[in-house]
Design the sequence.
């Protein structure tokens, strides 16, 4: 296996007495689409929040290129090449789509308030480059006709895409998508899946994906990590995951141990 | 007819000053979610400093020192009492600013005493004659300065990264932080701008025809609150419109209250609040609510 781009080791998060994540480890290979799945409450979103510095870690580490991301302030994370979306839409409704996308460029902007206000050449060049990226990202996600619209008037599917576009505008190396197709119908989620694949090619991304839609996960991902009650219960290719009795048990609610024994006697 | 034109002119000028004041109030609210009831304290400190400094170093130095003092006091309040406060509950912090206002205003009032401090602006009590309109020169300058300040602010707010971070940081702090926005910088710069804008309006409100700096000046900052609410709290455009409306209504009330009989003897003093009640009855979300657009 090639050197992982992102490595999570022994990640543990506690809320009071509740252990939300318990010694979670996995590695994300570069250029892959890596899915994290699991029943409700398994700790998938908690995992994202912990990785991006929103929750304090009780133990463990998150490494990227030998740097400990968990030791950085959350503001610095995007500068290391990690951008994310949220499970519940977090978009300021009064802003236009273009403004929201421009926020994705924020961490790369060097020109200060004064340089921008005085329209110095450097600031103007930077602004032009930003606009270009905003437009190209909007194009790939089909948001181009809506750039001037306030986010609040867009239908749900386009808002979801706006959030993904904002993250893409940051030009990340790793994109974290938290349930990108939640609330979409089959056709919509299929189209967005294709879109995610296209983005990966176009921007040479690594994608880490939390998703409930199994069809999408199995179609799209190269590797799957399964969480249950805050623990990793499987970590393999989508084909292997589909066969894994422990995973099936976790999803169907049957007794995992029993299933495994059954599988062993049959095997 | 003449009195109508004069009321219009003085209402516009007064309204522009209220708009500047309300703008400062809304900037702070938009960036940090706190209703800053210490606006009057910032204003009073700045104008007081301007008066002291202008005595030795002249009016321009006084103005600069005053604006700076307003900004510094606002940043101190933000840093010491608000950002590092253990509670981040906006209601609690809003009440904290009320207490802060009282303390600061009491101290500056003690220093001013019963005097009326002059600001020593070179224009003094000149008046200009524009056709049928007679107005203090200072008020005409105030109108121009207020418009320039508002235009400059709107350009910054609309077209710079700082403006963009300010527009998002209160609503979505976590997202903004993950996008690399330095929330602390957005917060203190907004307070600094808010404080300086309060002083800017205060400097003109303390000039002719007002005799000078008195502690009562802090109370005029209370016009910023109805102006902001009338416009639709949190909306920058709304604060400007609300401020101008307030100035207009107050100027008309001042012009005509004498001919309305005894019930109206202090109509101009309370007109801001009458306007507020009327607007809120008709349009509870304010004229320009920040969240007008929504599709469910």
Sequence:
């Amino acid at each position: 296996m090639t050197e992982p781009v992102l490595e999570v080791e022994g990640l543990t998060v506690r809320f009071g007495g509740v252990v939300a994540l318990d010694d979670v480890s996995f590695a994300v290979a570069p250029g892959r689409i890596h899915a994290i799945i699991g029943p409700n409450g398994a700790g998938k979103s908690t995992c994202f929040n912990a990785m991006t510095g929103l929750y304090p870690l009780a133990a463990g580490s998150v490494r990227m290129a030998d740097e400990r991301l968990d030791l950085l302030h959350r503001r610095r994370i995007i500068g290391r090449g990690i951008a994310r979306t949220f499970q519940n839409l977090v978009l300021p409704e009064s802003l236009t789509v273009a403004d929201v996308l421009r926020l994705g460029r924020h961490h790369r902007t060097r020109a200060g308030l004064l340089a921008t206000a005085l329209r110095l050449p450097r600031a103007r060049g930077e602004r032009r480059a930003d606009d270009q990226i905003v437009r190209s990202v909007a194009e790939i996600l089909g948001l181009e006709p809506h750039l001037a619209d306030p986010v609040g008037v867009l239908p749900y599917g386009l808002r979801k895409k706006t959030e993904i576009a904002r993250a893409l505008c940051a030009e990340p190396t790793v994109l974290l998508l938290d349930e990108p197709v939640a609330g979409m119908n089959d056709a919509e989620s299929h189209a967005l899946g294709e879109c995610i694949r296209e983005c990966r090619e176009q921007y040479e991304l690594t994608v880490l994906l939390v998703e409930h839609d199994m069809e999408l996960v199995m179609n799209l991902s190269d590797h799957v990590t399964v969480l249950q009650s805050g623990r990793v219960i499987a970590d393999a290719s989508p084909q292997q995951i589909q066969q894994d009795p422990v995973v099936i048990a976790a999803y169907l609610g049957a007794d995992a141990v029993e299933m495994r024994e059954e599988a062993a006697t049959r095997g | 007819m003449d009195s109508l034109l004069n009321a219009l002119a003085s209402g516009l000028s007064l309204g522009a000053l209220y708009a500047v004041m309300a703008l400062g109030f809304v900037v702070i609210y938009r960036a940090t979610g706190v209703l800053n009831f210490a606006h009057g304290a910032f204003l009073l400190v700045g104008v007081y400093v301007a008066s002291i400094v202008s005595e030795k170093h002249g009016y321009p130095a006084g103005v600069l020192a005053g604006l700076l003092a307003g900004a510094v006091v606002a940043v101190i309040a933000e840093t010491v009492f608000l950002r590092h406060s253990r509670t981040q509950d906006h209601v609690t912090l809003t009440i904290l600013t009320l207490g802060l206002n009282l303390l600061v205003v009491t101290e500056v009032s003690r220093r001013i005493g019963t005097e009326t401090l002059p600001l020593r602006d070179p224009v003094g009590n000149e008046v200009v004659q524009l056709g049928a309109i007679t107005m203090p020169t200072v008020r005409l300058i105030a109108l121009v300065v207020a418009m320039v300040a508002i235009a400059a602010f709107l350009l910054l707010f609309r077209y710079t990264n700082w403006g963009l971070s300010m527009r998002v940081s209160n609503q979505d702090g976590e997202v903004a932080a993950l996008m690399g926005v330095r929330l602390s910088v957005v917060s203190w710069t907004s307070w600094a701008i808010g404080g300086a804008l309060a002083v800017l309006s205060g400097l003109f409100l303390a000039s002719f025809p007002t005799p000078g700096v008195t502690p009562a000046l802090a109370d005029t900052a209370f016009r910023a609150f109805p102006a902001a609410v009338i416009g639709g709290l949190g909306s920058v455009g709304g604060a400007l419109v609300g401020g101008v409306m307030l100035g207009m209504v107050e100027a008309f009330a001042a012009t005509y209250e004498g001919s309305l009989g005894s019930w109206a003897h202090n109509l101009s003093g309370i007109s801001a609040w009458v306007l507020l009640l009327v607007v809120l009855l008709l349009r509870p979300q304010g004229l320009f609510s920040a969240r007008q657009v929504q599709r469910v």
In short: The longest strand of chain B covers residues 127-130. The beta strands of chain B are 127-130, 133-136. Chain B touches chain A through 28 residues (CB under 8 Å). The CA atoms of residues 16 and 244 of chain B lie 6 Å apart.
